[in-house]
UniProtKB/TrEMBL annotation:
<dbReference type="InterPro" id="IPR005162">
    <property type="entry name" value="Retrotrans_gag_dom"/>
</dbReference>
<feature type="domain" description="Retrotransposon gag">
    <location>
        <begin position="45"/>
        <end position="139"/>
    </location>
</feature>
<protein>
    <recommendedName>
        <fullName>Retrotransposon gag domain-containing protein</fullName>
    </recommendedName>
</protein>
<dbReference type="Pfam" id="PF03732">
    <property type="entry name" value="Retrotrans_gag"/>
</dbReference>
Amino acid sequence: MDSKKPYIKPDTFSGSTSENIDSFLKKYDKAARINGWTTEDKAQYIVAFLEGPALTFYENSQHNNIEIPKWEEIEKTFRTEFEPIAQKDLIRSMLEKRKQLDDEQTVAYINEAESLCRRVDPLMIQTDMVRNIMKGLRPNIARYIGIMENSTINELKNNIRKYENLEFIITGQTYQSPAEIKESIFKEQLNQLTTQFNDKINILNEKIIKQDAENAKIQTQNYTQFLDNNNPRFRNRNNNNLPFYTPPRQPNYSQPHCISADLKMSKGIAANIKSIFGNAAPMLSHLNPKI
């Protein structure tokens, strides 16, 4: 069984304006914890993940040092050198203006605000963090959570879960942001319009089918009446309860029909045709039918 621990390679840092020293140090520290590095290891390995101006700065700062300095000193030196001017003031301003967005999950907002608090002051106490976070919560959540004990971030998150559970018990659904509510209303209205449209189409189709059937019935009756009035043999076609047969509507059209080889035409539609047009057996027998 392979007992080797996983190895996470930290990102590199060059000190360019597009890079963030705080982000690099956090990722480096996370990789060090996973790799099992001590603070001495972190101080020794950092040079392998520097390049460009950052590497030059490190080499210059260590020029007169016989021993590798402690990690805390290296971290502080890098923050001082590569953090933008007024970085903390900028982050503090971001924290003060940070508000929970309409479509943002509460726990996601808390985690983001907590990160800003730690960037402003890595040693910020929990109560100060909670106070900064509470200021940005949505008002309906803050009013409920504000009357509860929120001394730590974990207590705040637990109270948020209680609030969400209560909302679910009362409304039967989890909290929905205004954007989600608008989307839900839009979908409901769209479904209603689709149902109404389909109902109207079905009604129209039923009317068309009914009208077509009535028109076909009228046409059949008119044509039958025409044949009754103009063909005496057709007028008596059903005297012997023979199956109904309608000749072609156009006089220059023919209508074929299969009959038995004996040419008797004594049953079914064949008998009906025979009663209308007469016995064609003498003429057909010369054709020597085989079927």
